[in-house]
Amino acid sequence: MANINCNKIEEAVRLILQAVGEDPNREGLLETPKRVAKMYEEVFSGLTIDPKEYFETIFSEDHEELVLVKDIPFYSMCEHHLVPFYGTAHVAYIPRNGRVAGLSKLARAVESVSRRPQLQERITSTVADTIMDTLEPHGVMVVVEAEHMCMTMRGVKKPGTKTITSAVRGVFVKDGNARSEILSYINN
User: Which Pfam families match (predicted)?
Assistant: First the structure.
């Protein structure tokens, strides 16, 4: 994927400032285009990362029971309005044939997928599909809960509103008890 072009972002921010009636040469705004470009470079850094790379190193462990990493904080940018949404992700899987990943790798996958212009639904399914494709577990369940600034600061203006999405793969598709077990751990 292409690298982020900070010069173009700076030019665009200057144009936006002019378009809203501001003077980009005003003292308080002089460095704003550069600051916004650096921020975009950081918040869109996931564009250059394939989350599968976090699962290239796996460990062999005789464990075929639930692994859940919950309350993984993330920040993303809504691709429809380019305003933030943020929340927590919960990632669960049941290893197969001793294929386990380092726990931090689950959080890194969430972070890399969220650091692009994004939809919450896509974050949820991409993380689940990445784990299924790389670890080949018995099953994966990803639950994401987020607040979207496009609903908080504009439009309907409902602060505190949460959106919850889930992606269920493998054994969790048919096993309602297993899904309920995960949800009980997430909610406690």
Answer: GTP_cyclohydroI
